[in-house]
Amino acid sequence: MNHYPARKFCLKCLVTIVLIALFIVASFAYLSLNPLALFTQQAMNDVAVYTARFFPPDLSPPFLQKVWSGVLQTLAISALATLLAAIVSLFLVLPAAGQFGHSAKMVTRFFLNFLRSVPELVWAVLMVLAVGLGPFAGTLALTLHTTGVLGRLFGETLENHPPAATQALRLAGASNTQSFIYGALPGIYSQLLSYSLYRWEMNIRMATILGFVGAGGLGQILYYELSLLHEQQASTVIIAMLILVIGVDMISNKLRRVQMHSLG
Description:
Elements: H1 11-30, H2 41-52, H3 61-96, H4 102-117, H5 120-131, H6 135-160, H7 164-171, H8 176-210, H9 218-227, H10 231-263
């Protein structure tokens, strides 16, 4: 008969749970929110009435053509931003990994942390003010934020890669760049590609939101229709967003599976 040791009482766990509960209650109190108000008869009726205004969706050919144009624009914004960010990150991977010295590593890491610490919506507002409304602003905003994310991930990937191949090339007289291209990149490119595909999935979602600040794509169409209280047209845009995100997730997962299978 197996005897398992008795579990000890976790005082730290209990204190953590109590603190989290107190913090949640305090947050509701500070914001003067009453969650029970969401479940009153009046609130439920209001939600039902408002939801009914979104049906049936507008499936007229002219509006579907408009939505299709927004889908293509959203795909283009996300794909171009991810591609540009991946290219810039490849140029920053060596200093980010400390290949050019500690000072260069600290400066590059600070720059990348700054880029990714600013949310995409904030970058979008700044880019709209800088270059005007439209997809160009959305592309720039996503490129800046994604560069911060991918640059950090690429740098950490290179740091964790076994240095034997690159060191051998350096001993043979190769530069840091040549050692990276011929020694490290063949061993880490699959991981870099996986990171890029994952960020593309996230950028699809963000590209649909950036339109709310005038950065193009489906989000701009959705904001326009909601501002005019065109709920049926807004419902069509929301459905298009859902189909787009699901489709991109399936494609990205398929590409990653094919990549892993080819490596195996």
